[in-house]
Automatic annotation (TrEMBL), chains A, B, C, D:
Catalytic activity field: 5-hydroxyisourate + H2O = 5-hydroxy-2-oxo-4-ureido-2,5-dihydro-1H-imidazole-5-carboxylate + H(+); 5-hydroxy-2-oxo-4-ureido-2,5-dihydro-1H-imidazole-5-carboxylate + H(+) = (S)-allantoin + CO2
Entries under InterPro entries matching the protein: Hydroxyisourate_hydrolase, OHCU_decarboxylase, OHCU_decarboxylase-1, OHCU_decarboxylase_sf, Thyroxine_BS, Transthyretin/HIU_hydrolase, Transthyretin/HIU_hydrolase_d, Transthyretin/HIU_hydrolase_sf
GO terms, biological process: allantoin metabolic process; purine nucleobase metabolic process; urate catabolic process
Disulfide bond is among the record's keywords: no
Protein name: Parahox neighbor
GO annotations of cellular component type: peroxisome
Residue ranges occupied by any Transthyretin/hydroxyisourate hydrolase domain in the UniProt entry: 217-332
Sites where the protein binds substrate: 220, 259, 330
Molecular function, one GO term: hydroxyisourate hydrolase activity
Organism ancestry: Eukaryota, Sar, Stramenopiles, Ochrophyta, Bacillariophyta
Organism of derivation: Skeletonema marinoi
Recorded family membership: Belongs to the OHCU decarboxylase family.
Pathway: Purine metabolism; urate degradation; (S)-allantoin from urate: step 3/3
């Protein structure tokens, strides 16, 4: 059974009790790209026993009961920082183009790599190295245009982003006549938050071996043609791996309320970040009703619904509303 | 380039001009399962030169300008028939259980087969022969229950239906305390209509080699987060074959109105009945907008939308309404 | 505080213990229009102490713990009856045209009325008497056509139906080339069920004064632009009276999960059949987010959602999914 | 028939040909609140014959063929301006609290008013003067908090906004821990754009008396229970006046494609900015189908859909997708 910790991870309570900034830095130094000073300051202002009185530190530790709260504190700390500090955080990010060259370089020779290991890994998964010469030229040019227009590097924290995502994002921001530096800076800070959170989850764990971060996945199927829960519908849950192939995780038959019969589809250690797919056997369900007129090649038969689980601490409710001729889904609660 | 005719097909105008019932029967005899008398009567009442005056026949031929109209005339003829005739049409269908045995039998010895070739082919595709012993027992039992309860055989004209579809349909009709013989008969007639139409399309063609039956497929993508057409979204269209693998047919990038840039995705000879899939690159699209906050593992990234094209004479509009957190589709117009 | 009983109503347990068919008939005789024999037979076969042994009667009484179960038993009894009996039930209904004349007649002279009091009341609310001469002619003609085509009177149990509903229904059934007597009979039986249930609810009550039949109304608002519950949204609930004016029943502000803060909006004696309206202050909600770009005349501001509560024993979940540019609702669970 | 001009409006071509900044200012001085210098600079850089060569001016005039293009040019001019200039534009706006006091003041004595006439009119319609003492206190306090937090006044260009909208917006921005000055500034610029556009439309017209700005309203109804256009559905269009009462504008019956039978519902001079309501007679439509099981108090009967038309130059497509148990709408195209 998978657990949340690996040998290089530090338990949250141990982290919060570290007595010096250098030790804190040794663990979380890479959270904000090439910005150890910022992490040091966060430690000094909030957790350092020489600059805070004991009761303040105690209160802070008592408040930070999980990794998401630690992240929230850091995020607020970024928000309260002067705009020069914020811009510095953004500008410490290598531009995606440089990363790209480096990924190629590391494929030749690890020693040449000058981007951080964290950054390389995130980007390495992105498959950017497969750019065609033309795409690389577009990419380089748009990247420069972005920096010129908004005075910050282009930052995108999409895990496993394809080159299409990155190129689409760059082109979209540049071609939008309404986009403003203010919005791009706000958005880049958002991306930096996300990177910090993703990195925190890989560096910090819990003292007591915990089964997951508390997130879970639920489902519900409504039959909008008849105004009732879709009872007795077969559903399968698949997970994609990084190479875009999928494995079935579980299968279900909905209960009389149109829900999964035994609680969440995923919870605890099973609930892991990634790309998933529901398969709903909608055609089989509607064949039960003579009024549905299911025949020939049905308009809807197998409904495949791809979705991503992003935050391991959250509840994801991913329902289906369907008739034989229409369906919709949304992130519910 | 695929055309609509094969050597065994008869052109519509030639069909309508056939001078005797036996010739008409030779071509369309199998349209209604084991019911040649019915076809004969249809011919006699509508097209036979000895029982209709010339001007009536002329009017009928002038009205029936395509295969769907021929089908509609036959459907109306069924509807106007006395209920005994209708029940006879239904009861001429082999029960699905017998078909099943026969499919197995034909795999051993063609001569033993007593079901019609048309019926065998439709069913053969259904993969019913892969029933487990338990499933076969359920199937046989439910089939008998159905006949006892409703006094007609269970008829299901789903092309390539899986055993799950058939079992779900049978179980649903039997367990529904509100189902009535009236409804089941009405529904069985609907299935018989569908079978007749599918068979007509394989037996009748046009004199002038025609590129398709006139149906076409269109698409439209709306961005419901921003209230605008989703311009510049990549879309791919795939077609499934009978073994559930798919081939890309075409790819598109939406225009400024969120539509395909060069008219229908499929039309003419390309528009063929079957299972298709749209892939919409929704995540890439929303990455264009800083306000979308696309990061980490996006909730929606690649939207896969499976749909069936059933009637080769119809317009299928299959749009997508999407935000980064929800989407819906429907058969539009 | 409203209760479920009135002096003329009979408690369920008392009803089920009535010793003779004539007493049972005295209470439920009008459930099926002009069909006392049918009610009598239902009593004789299920509840009569001289034709059933004590343990069977005991089991029946033990099963029928509420009015909906009584209704279900009657419905199944109809379903199991021979088709001649079913047709007799349908043909006992006065045609809507006759009702119309009678309603006019009763306005002149009560004595002339020959339709049942139950039927007159249901129809009287329908406002059919306001037909123009032309509409009355259409109505009469279509009614006759319907009877000729399907051999049963046209039955529609829509409470407070407008003349438009009735005319639309009649025209639709007649103009549908695919409609069949089987379907119309099945549907007419469904309407007769509905009438019986509505009449039962007005004739039977409970011994212990009960606050409502157990139904309740809930709500949920999801923000599909941001993928979160819509917290802090103002909602109002109105009820329409028969003259199409409405009164505010309650107002709410959604909690952090987008739900009503104190459970069901209506339950117990408050949950009564009728037409309601939610008002959702969607524009005010989205003005909270700078990313929503609410300005000028917002596309969506006040969302009004009219819905009917029909079955006093059911749960009605009536949610809203909304972005600043789109919304949807459905009967949920 | 209403036209686009009033005596105080200036035709676009005349405006673009004005020979001096002071004349240009006399007409458009109020477009950006208390920022005549900005308007003057726009004129000088783009239209002034002494600072631009003839061919440049000619090209500019040739490009600006309608009022929306003029607005776009101004918006881009704002976007290209240094951030100090942008902040100056924002800070020239009176705070909403001051406006409020002034509106009260003007009700006592016009001479005391110090806010611009444009601003007063927009705000006057907002009904802010009806704040209770408690609300006024909240309002004043939050307004101050907003200015302290983001260093700009709170700007909201919602026409006819209620006090609830303004209070909700203020509270939302202040309570959002993720909101940033960058985003608020970007949003405030967006509001300032909107104000400029609304004022332009009231100050500039066309030489040739034009029937409307080109915008139009269309509709489409899809029946998602049956997968077909909703043909023959009655629809009514209402317009709200400022006192929240409504007048019917037109009524329609959908054609066989589920669309309005004679093109746009509104176009030309009829297409005016404001709050509208569609009424869809969904219950009557579904009563046409026996499979819909419409009876009792239908869940959906009359669907009321309120929407705002904001930009007189745009196409608004406002469709309905409906089953007897669900519906959705969106701004389409």
């Amino acid at each position: 059974m998978s657990s949340l910790s690996s040998p290089t991870m530090i338990p949250l309570d141990v982290l919060l009790a570290l007595p010096t900034a250098s030790e804190f830095l040794a663990h979380l130094g890479g959270i904000y790209e090439k910005s150890p000073t910022f992490i040091e300051q966060f430690y000094t202002e909030n957790l350092c026993p020489t600059t805070n009185d004991a009761s303040t530190i105690q209160a802070t530790k008592a408040r930070i009961t999980n990794i998401k709260i630690l992240f929230d504190e850091m995020k607020q700390y970024v928000r309260r920082s002067p705009s020069e500090v914020q811009l510095e955080l953004l500008r410490s990010h290598p531009d995606l183009c440089l990363k790209l060259e480096q990924i190629d370089a590391t494929q030749r020779d690890e020693d040449e790599a000058t981007i951080t290991e964290e950054s390389r890994q995130e980007q390495g998964r992105a498959g950017l190295a497969t750019l065609t010469p033309d795409e690389r030229q577009n990419f380089t040019e748009w990247n420069e245009d972005y920096k010129s227009k908004f005075n910050i590097p282009f930052i995108l924290a999409v895990r496993n982003a394809s080159k299409y995502t990155v190129l689409s994002a760059l082109e979209g921001r540049l071609s939008n006549v309404n986009s403003s530096p203010q919005e791009e800076i706000a958005h880049a800070l958002f991306q930096v938050d996300k990177i910090a959170y993703m990195r925190l989850l890989e560096k910090v764990t819990y003292s007591q071996n915990q089964e997951g971060h508390g997130g879970f996945l639920t489902c519900h199927v409504l039959d909008t043609a008849n105004g009732v829960p879709a009872a007795g519908m077969r559903i399968e849950l698949y997970k994609y791996d990084n190479t875009d192939t999928k494995q079935m995780v579980k299968s279900f038959v909905t209960n009389s309320d149109g829900r999964l019969p035994s609680g969440p589809a995923l919870k605890g250690a099973e609930f892991t970040v990634g790309q998933y797919q529901w398969i709903f056997y909608v055609g089989d369900y509607f064949a039960r009703f003579s009024s549905s007129r299911i025949c020939g090649t049905p308009f809807l038969d197998v409904v495949r619904l791809d979705f991503g689980l992003d935050d391991p601490t959250d509840h994801y409710h991913v329902p289906l509303l369907c008739s034989p001729w229409s369906y919709s889904t949304y992130r519910g609660s």
